[in-house]
Every structure is written in structure tokens, then in C-alpha cells.
Design goal:
Length: 132
């Protein structure tokens, strides 16, 4: 029998910020909060705007193919995982590299290039970790 649960807030019983979810094999659990992206964006370097984003306040164009994304809510520490990608429809040698991450100011800077030179391309960034 299928069921539907409608809620506005989920809170753990023993620890408010921790909810265990039974994993696919039914023998282990995973922490719901740990698996959620804490911030992400789809950035259009041509228009220097977010096409869409979550938990981002701004993007700074530092120069051709060099962008800094500022996260609205700080991460809890220096250990977090960021993934970046970029889009290019015409050149096969596009690279997208995370240059730096600073948990204090929650900035993530990436470099995008074509054939060894910086280039303005559509970029995507996602980060996982603990919020402060």
C-alpha cells in the first residue's frame, strides 16, 4: 500500500540535526543531512549571472574564465567537497578546475579554459559538507 507524508520540517528525535535513513540494502543507514548538497549554481559567464542557484549570494568575474562564487550560509569547517564542471559546445579541450576554497568566507573559485587558455564558459558548482 502506498502512502504519502506531507510535512514542512523534519527534525531528528535524539539529535535535532540528524536523521537516519535506511539504505537500499535494508541493512545499513545513511545520514540524510550528510547526503544533501549545501550549495550549487549554474553560472552563465557570458551574462555574468546565475541561471539558477541554491544558497549562493553572488558570483564575481575575476577575469576571463576565472570566477568566485560566494555561499550564503557558511560551511562548518575546511573539510568539504566541491565539484565543478563547465560546458562548451564547440571545443573538445575544455577544462574546469577548482582553484581554491575558503570555508571562512565560503568562497569557491574556479578556472575554466580551452586548449590551455582561460575562457568564459557556462559553469556549474556543487558543494557538500556541514553547515555552520
Amino acid at each position: 500500500m502506498a502512502s504519502e507524508l506531507k510535512v514542512n520540517t523534519l527534525t531528528g528525535v535524539s539529535t535535532a540535526g540528524s536523521i537516519a535513513v535506511t539504505a537500499e540494502g535494508n541493512s545499513t543507514t545513511t545520514n540524510l543531512q550528510q547526503g544533501l548538497a549545501k550549495a550549487w549554481c549554474d553560472y552563465d559567464s557570458a551574462g555574468t549571472t546565475f541561471n539558477d542557484s541554491f544558497n549562493m549570494t553572488s558570483a564575481t568575474d575575476n577575469g576571463t574564465g576565472d570566477y568566485t562564487f560566494t555561499i550564503a550560509n557558511d560551511l562548518g569547517g575546511t573539510r568539504h567537497s566541491a565539484v565543478v564542471s563547465c560546458t562548451n559546445d564547440t571545443v573538445q579541450n575544455t577544462t574546469c578546475v577548482l582553484r581554491s576554497k575558503d570555508a571562512t568566507s565560503t568562497r569557491l573559485t574556479i578556472r575554466v579554459g580551452d586548449s590551455g587558455s582561460n575562457a568564459d564558459k557556462q559553469s556549474h558548482m556543487t558543494t557538500h559538507g556541514d553547515l555552520a
